[in-house]
Structure formats: C-alpha cells, structure tokens
Amino acid sequence: MKFEQRIHQNQTQKQTQKLAMTQELQQSIQMLQYNTDDLLTFLENKALENPLLEIKVDTDDSLLLYKSKNQGSSQSGDSKTEWLEQVPDNRLSLFEYLINQVHLNYRDTYLRKLVLHLIQFVDKNGYLSTPLEDIRVQTQATEIELLDALTLLQMLEPTGVGARDLRECLLLQIEKDNIAPNLAYIIVEEYFEELANRKWKVIEKAYDIELFEIQEIVDYIQKLQPYPGAGFSNEDESFIIPDVIVKVKGKQIEVTSTKRSTPTLVFQQKYFEQMSQRADKEVLDYLKNRKSEFEFLQKGVIQRGNTILRVAEEIVSQQHDFFLDPKRPLKSLQLKEVAKKIGVHESTVSRSVNGKYLQTDFGMFELRSFFTVGISQGTEGDELSTDMIKKEIQQLVDEENKNKPLSDQKIVESLLSKEIKISRRTVAKYRDELDIPSSSKRKRYDRK
To answer: Which of 30, 87, 117, 410 is least enclosed by beta carbons within 10 angstroms?
Structure first.
C-alpha cells in the first residue's frame, strides 16, 4: 500500500477591524479616569517635561469644597460660605497635644519618661495599640511602673485616651463624669458584654433594677466618645473638587462644567518660533514632537470635559426628580442606559463617573451614586430603585413605636400597603446595609 502526502499552500487576504491601543489612546483613557485633582497633577508633570506647555487653572469662587472623608456618600452644604468651615486648621496632632500636657503637668522623672514612651503607642483613635507586656520588654520597666505610667497617661485629655479597649475607654469617661448614672460604672465594668448584647435580664436580676433604668444607662453610654482621638488629625484632609455644577431654576435644571475640571493649556508660541530658527535637526524634531504632544493633550482635556458633561447631563435628565423633589428620589438607572443614549461604550461612562462629583445647592454627590439597581413591581415593567426602597424602610423605622419596633415582616406589610412588593429577606438585607439593627435590638424600655 502506497501513501501519498500532498501539501498545498494557498495565499488568501482577510480584512479585520482591530482597535490598536496606541500610547496616545491609552493616555486619553487615563485622563478620563482621573479626577480633577489627579488630572491637574498629571498635566503639571507633563508641563515640567514640555517647555512649550503651560497650564492655567481658572478659579471659581462659586465652588463649595468638601472634605473627602467619605467619598461614597453625599455631603450637604447650606450656604456658599460653608467652604470656610471646611478648611483644615493647623491644630496640634493628638501626639503633640499629649506630649505638651506631659511636659506641662509632670516633673522630669523616670515615670514621666515612661509616659512619654507610652504615648508613642497611642493610635489615631486614642487607644494604646501595643500590649503593656511588649512595652515592658522594650523598656525593662517593672509591671507596676508601667501601670503607674499608664494611669498618668489616662489622666490626660481627651478623656478616655490611653484605653486598651472600648470598655476601658468608657470606664475612664464615666469615672470623670459627675452626672453619670449611679450604676453606669459598675455595670460597664462587670456586665459589659451582657449590656452590649442586650442580655439585660441578667443585669436586671443582678442589681434588682428596672429595665427602663438600664435603658437610661445605655442612652447615657451612647453619648460618650468611643474614639477619644477623633478630634485630632495628623495630616491635612483632602478636598473634593466638583466637575459639574447643577443649578435648579424653577422647573429648569442647568448643568455646567467647572473651570477647574477643564484647565486651559497654553502653547508657548514665542519660544517655539525662537527655537525653530535654529538649523539643528534634533532641535526641530524635538520641537515638532513637543508641539504634537501639546495638541494631543489639549484635545484630550477638551474631550474629557465634554464627555463628563454629556454623561452628567444625561444623568440629570434621567434623575430629574432627584433635583426637583425635596425627598430626593432616585429611579433605577444603569451604566448601559446612559452609554446608549449618548452613543459611547459602557466603560467610557464608568470612567466618567468614578471619582467625579456633581455640586448642587443641597450637597455634593459622586456621579456614580446616581446609578441604582431596580426591583420589578409587576407585569407592566415598572421598577423601583433600591435607593427609594431603602428610604422607605428608613422612614418606617424612624417613625415606629420604639417600645414596639417593627419586625421585618411588619415592614414588608407596610411597604405592600404603599404598593412596594419585596420579600422579608430583601428587607433584612437592606436593613443591614442601612446599619439598622433587628427589631429586638431596637426595642426601648422607657420609664412609664
């Protein structure tokens, strides 16, 4: 049997479309991802490398500035002068404040040296972050000496500083408070876990007191400061700079870009002309490349600003009730809906809303916060946003009888009476997301 092997070679042409991720395109995408502050930093670095490029940032006195403690939530502002209250001051850090008190109040002794050493282990919340045994090994001090030093540290302000846990922090504050409830100190000292876990029957039996008296102690404790160092900061806090401003005039909503979000790029024409007179080819090539870079950056900045504005305008159009209704309702909205409306890819919308903020007369909001998932409410395709449902749940809990709080099933029934259909499990999920305790933990025992 004879086998024949034949090899044929054919040449064919095939056309395909492929998006090449050039360096310029990558840089354009990068600029869209940047928030305003990062964009300015990026452009300033480019200006250092390019002598033909100058960055001018126009200031806008109408902007409200907000500390970026929680960028995922909105910050409210009642007046245009509130930004003055938001400027971080140059007050002492907690570390400096404690050191100054030690030097002012304690004599220069070995015990004072131990107190100063302990302060190094006080974290930003005011707690002693390292076990005394570890510190004893470092200092070679005796256990009694370290405990004495800790006592001196805990006598300083703010009250509660130097505590090793929450229980000790509360005890330090109760001890110094002349108007604390009589049994507050001993109950926190001996029954802290039972108090926190609402096993109040044990406490009621141990001290032969009424439940309403325990409730009064709990109400008092909730007014204490769990983080003594909260009023101090070791570094300046950053600020949120809005990208767009929304103005409501009657039923009309106006959306505009801020000047800071679209900085002006200036081309150094005179310098370019002077350098172009040289016959050196390397210099001419350098100038040509730098001019091209300027033109690309200028185009990218303008395109970035226009894209963010278009996305913001569509968001405002879709969520107009949020800006007109004092209850601030949000409807169901997804990234792909906005992308389809303005004719861009969904990823472009995602980059345009992350870290970008919208300023109104009633607060600052991240653009991403306007996108919410909806829950179907029937066969007609009606949907309610999860944000609106959460607001309804929050309102029901706020208005409930605290002596007989609503169970999750009762909340389901109350929502159903408002034609909002969700399951008990969904209520429990949203309640957890809102940090609302269960009905058993919300129950109060007030004096009758």
So the answer is: 87
Domains in the chain, ordered, with CATH?
21-88+239-372 (no CATH), 94-231 (no CATH), 374-442 (1.10.10.60)
Query: Which distant-in-sequence residues (6+ apart) come within 8 Å of 50 by Cβ?
Result: 290, 293, 294
Phi-psi region of 113 (alpha: psi -120 to 50; beta: other; left: phi over 0): alpha
Segment 308-354, tens digit of pLDDT? 999 999 999 999 989 998 888 888 888 999 999 999 999 999 999 99
Contact 106, 112 (CB under 8 A): yes
pLDDT in tens, 256-304: 998 888 888 899 998 888 888 876 888 888 889 999 999 999 999 999 9
Q: Which of 73-77, 118-122, 181-185, 193-197 has the lowest mean pLDDT?
A: 73-77
Q: Report the Cα–Cα distance between both ends of the chain, in Å, rounded.
A: 108
**33-71 per-position pLDDT tens digit:** 888 888 888 999 989 988 988 988 776 545 555 554 444
Q: At which residue do the structure tokens 């409200």 appear?
A: 64
CA distance 180 to 358: 45
Helices (H), 319-361: 320-324, 335-342, 346-353
Element at 212 (helix H, strand E):
helix 211-221
CA–CA dist 72, 337 (Å, integer): 22
Give residue 19's identity as a one-letter amino acid code. L
Establish how many alpha carbons lie within 13 A of residue 38's alpha carbon, considering only the half-sphere containing its beta carbon.
9
Distance CA 30, CA 91 (A): 37
C-alpha 229/C-alpha 125 separation (Å) is: 4
Whose structure tokens read 């304690």? Answer: 106
3-state secondary structure of 44: helix
Contacts for 219 with CB less than 8 Å, ≥ 6 apart: none
Q: Could you give the CA distance from residue 131 to residue 113 in angstroms, rounded to a whole number?
A: 18
pTM: 0.60
Other C-beta atoms lying within 10 Å of the C-beta of residue 213: 19
